Amino acid sequence: MIIGWLSTPVRKGGQPPWIVSDGLWARIEPLLPAVPRRADHPGRRRLDNRKVLCGILFVLYAGIPWEFLPQELGFGSGMTCWRRLRDWHQAGAWQRLHESLLAELHAAGALDWSRAVTGGSHVRAWKGGPKPGRARSIVPGRARSTT
After folding, report:
1. FRET label pair with 54: which of 38, 68, 71, 145, CA 20 to 30 Å apart?
2. Residue 48's Cα: distance from chain center in Å?
3. How far apart are CA 56 and CA 70, in angstroms?
4. Residue 20 phi, psi (nearest 5)
């Protein structure tokens, strides 16, 4: 069964991949920062973090721009999802989730570190690389002055 305009099919009777299961939510929820409600200017009540996470996963799964997140899904606006993703990233929630999952897999002996790869984009070059020289000109001489 294909839901709406999504090009990737969702199995009939199966749960869509952007819906967060209870088990996964139990792991993620404690890692998300708690934002206290202001007593002096409470404003609109914040949307539930779980719904926002489902909205983030929907945008990433469907490959749509944030502003095209359908309001009918109940995941909030695309801007709300984007801001919450930014805030959670800045708070280090995803790094902590990654580390806890790696620790759990390592404790279970499910990681094969002999196949780990470290790329240059993840390792700091302490002394830096070679400094590029000045680019040589490919023209035979200087251009004549037009003044």
Report:
1. 38
2. 18
3. 12
4. -85, 125
User: For the chain, what are the domain ranges?
Assistant: 22-27+47-109
Residue of 71, 100, 69 whose CA lies nearest to 85:
69
Among 46, 55, 65, smallest CA distance to 85 is for 55
In total, the chain counts a number of residues equal to: 147
| Rounded (10°) angle between helices 78-90 and 93-107 | 60
* DSSP code at position 139: S
Helices (H), ranges, the chain: 22-28, 49-62, 78-90, 93-107
Report which of 112, 45, 29, 111 is spatially closest to residue 80, judged by C-alpha positions.
Answer: 45
Query: How far is the C-alpha of 112 from the C-alpha of 36, rounded, in Å?
Result: 41
pLDDT over 70 (residue 131): no
Within the chain, what is the greatest distance between any pair of CA atoms? 77
